[in-house]
Amino acid sequence: MRSYGQFCSIAKALDVIGDRWTLLIIRELLLRGACRYTDLKNGLPGIATNLLADRIRELEAAGLIRREEAPPPIATTLVHLTEAGAELEPVMRALGSWGIRFMAQPADDDEFRSQWFAYPVEEFLRDADPGASPVSIELRTASGPAVIEVSGGTVRTRIGAAASPDLALAGRPQMILALLTGKLTAAEAAARGLEITGDESVLRRVLPDPAHGVASASVP
C-alpha cells in the first residue's frame, strides 16, 4: 500500500482508501451488505479479478473488511465490512450527493447496476406523508429491479422486486433518475420512453415539489 508520507488525517485516510476501486468496493458492501466475491465483482464492472483480490487483501489488512465462511447451503466465503469500514457510509453519501452534478451527461458505454440507485434516490426523495400507509416503487432496468420503500417518514432502497408495487418505473436509469430528481415530469419522462404503471400519486408523496431537483442539468 502506497503512502503519501504525511502526518495528516486526510492523507492517512487516503493511504488506506485512496487507491483506484477501493471506495467502490466499500460502496458495494454498504449497498449489498455481506456478499460473495462473485457478487462483489458483478457490482464492479471493469475491475480485473486479480486487482479485486489485491484490494480485498489490502482492506482486510487495514481492518475495514473481514471474510467469513458461510455454512451450507451457501457454503462460500462472504465479505463483510467491519465497524470501521461501515463508518465510511456518511463519507460515501456525501460523495454521492456531490457527484450528482456530474451525471447530467452519461457516456454511452457507462455501466449501471440497480443498487446504484440508492444514493441519488435517498438524497432527493422524502416521505411527505409519514402517517400514510407504506408504499413501494419498483425500478426496472436492464440490470435488474430495485425497490424504493417509503414508510413512516423514511425512504430506503433495496435490490430485488416488490411483491405488489404501488408504482413501477421501467426504462433507462437516466430517465428514472430524471423523474425522481425532478428534472422531468411523469408526462415528459413517459414521452421519452419511460414506462410508468400503477398509482402516479405516489410520486407526489415522495417528490412533493418536482421543481426542487437539478432542473438546470440536461437530460439525455
Question: What do you see in this structure?
Answer:
The protein folds into two domains: 9-103, Arc Repressor Mutant, subunit A (Orthogonal Bundle); 114-210, SCP2 sterol-binding domain (Nonspecific Lipid-transfer Protein, Chain A, 2-Layer Sandwich). The chain is 37% helix and 19% strand. It has helices at 9-17, 22-32, 37-42, 49-61, 83-86, 89-99, 118-124, 173-180, 186-191, 201-206, and strands at residues 35-36, 65-69, 77-81, 135-141, 144-151, 154-159, 167-170, 195-198. It has a five-stranded mixed sheet with strand order 6-5-4-7-8. It has a three-stranded antiparallel sheet with strand order 1-3-2. The longest helix is centred in the first third of the chain and has 13 residues, at 49-61. The chain is globular. Residues 210-218 have low confidence and may be disordered. Residues 8-107 form the HTH hxlR-type domain. GO terms for molecular function: DNA binding. It holds the Pfam family HxlR.
First-residue to last-residue Cα separation:
40 Å
Q: Assess the beta-strand content as a share of residues.
A: 15-25%
Total number of beta strands: 8
Low-confidence stretches: 210-218
Task: Kindly report the spatial arrangement of strands forming the biggest sheet.
Answer: 6-5-4-7-8
Looking at the structure, the CATH topology of the largest domain is Nonspecific Lipid-transfer Protein, Chain A
The CATH class of the largest domain is: Alpha Beta
Report the CATH superfamily of the largest domain: SCP2 sterol-binding domain
What is the CATH architecture assignment of the largest domain?
2-Layer Sandwich
Secondary structure: helix percent? 25-40%
Element-by-element helix/strand order = HHEHHEEHHHEEEEHHEH
The averaged pLDDT comes out at 90
* Gyration radius, in Å: 19 Å
Largest sheet: 5 strands, mixed
State the shape.
Answer: globular
Quickly count the helices: 10
Structural domain tally: 2
